[in-house]
């Protein structure tokens, strides 16, 4: 299973799409901030920062940073789960994706 995850999360597969997504965040946030509730804006801002961290790990460690990338991706997943399952997610656990929120997810 870990081997398959390493292949799917390899820099050669994820790096460019993540950079593209990251580069679109700032203009989108600037354009949509007036339309968003504060909590939504903070969540999107945290997603952006996590994308920056993932890209930095790829830049500095490449595929050797696999575990850090997995940890950061889990945090991104949790933030998306908060949106998708708003009425079903407690402050500490998304039961659908089984990801635990860490202290680092504080918005």
Features:
mainly alpha; Four Helix Bundle (Hemerythrin (Met), subunit A); 107 residues
Question: What does this 3D model show about the protein?
Answer:
The protein has 107 residues and is mainly alpha-helical. It has a single domain, classed as Up-down Bundle (Four Helix Bundle (Hemerythrin (Met), subunit A)), CATH 1.20.120. Helices cover 67% and strands 4% of the residues. It is built from four helices and two strands, in the order H-H-H-H-E-E. The chain has helices at 2-8, 11-32, 38-61, 66-84, and strands at residues 93-94, 99-100. The longest helix is centred in the middle third of the chain and has 24 residues, at 38-61. The chain starts with a helix and ends in a 7-residue tail after the last strand.
Summarize the amount of helix as a percent range. Answer: 55-70%
Number of domains: 1
Give the strand line-up of the largest sheet: 1-2
* Contiguous helical run count: 4
- Broad structural category: mainly alpha
Uncertain residue ranges? 99-107
Oligomer: single chain
CATH class: Mainly Alpha
DSSP strand (E) fraction? under 5%
The separation of the N and C termini measures: 32 Å
Give the integer mean of the pLDDT values: 81
The CATH architecture would be Up-down Bundle
User: SSE order in H/E notation?
Assistant: HHHHEE
Determine Rg (CA atoms, Å).
14 Å
Largest sheet: 2 strands, antiparallel
Indicate the overall shape: elongated
The CATH topology turns out to be Four Helix Bundle (Hemerythrin (Met), subunit A)
CATH homolog superfamily: Pex19, mPTS binding domain
The number of E-state strands comes to: 2
């Amino acid at each position: 299973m870990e081997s398959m995850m390493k292949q799917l999360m390899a820099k050669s597969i994820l790096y460019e799409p993540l950079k593209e997504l990251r580069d679109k965040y700032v203009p989108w946030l600037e354009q949509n901030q007036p339309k968003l509730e504060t909590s939504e804006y903070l969540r999107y801002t945290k997603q952006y920062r996590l994308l920056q961290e993932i890209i930095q790990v790829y830049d500095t460690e490449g595929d050797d940073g696999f575990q850090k990338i997995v940890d950061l991706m889990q945090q991104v997943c949790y933030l998306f789960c908060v949106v998708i399952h708003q009425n079903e997610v407690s402050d500490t656990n998304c039961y659908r994706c089984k990801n635990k929120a860490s202290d680092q997810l504080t918005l």
